[in-house]
Predict the structure.
Amino acid sequence: MNGVTGVNSNPYPVNTSAVAANSVNTTAAVQTAGTTDEAVVFEKSAATNEKVTYSRDNAAIQSIRIKDQAYVQNLQNLVSHLINQVNANNLASGKNKFLNPIDPNKVDSYWDLLIDNGDGTFSWHPDLSPDAQNALIAKAKEDIGENGYYGVKQTSQRILDFAKAITGGDPSKIEDMRKYIQKGFDEVEKMFGGKLPEISYQTLNAIMKGLDEWAAGAK
């Protein structure tokens, strides 16, 4: 499932690169484009004397942020529920107890539930039982599915909505947005050693197609 599976010699191994890469791709592209609340006004020059002003749509940006916060909250609730299922006796005796237990309130992505093995692979946090790991794998697959939060459709639409919101829908800024998004994607690609899961490339293609459609509609 695009990398959201995998078994190796490490304890409780999992490869969530597809979800993580798509998540990081979204974050990098958005952060590169700019996320401050300062009012920004773009003025479109025209051959005529008419002057069209485009203002940052702060309401739309806030809406995107609220939806993202809701997703994170749902993930935190799931993690909290799974952590509560850990065998209390084992934890009390120190068996399998990790020095840095998971704090559900600080979980913002799947990366917060993984331990870097130092050899390019990752393992689940020891506080997560096998059942909890399976539940998270199922949730990860759902998230990168066709209609998932980190799937191609929703991720590309979020970035397009954000691009339109920060430019106020100014079509003269489409190429700037295209450069920012590509830059964010390239930076993530480097972070992952020059190669991302196929779902990330599909997402980028969907974003670029959306920018093309925006430009065509503006004409």
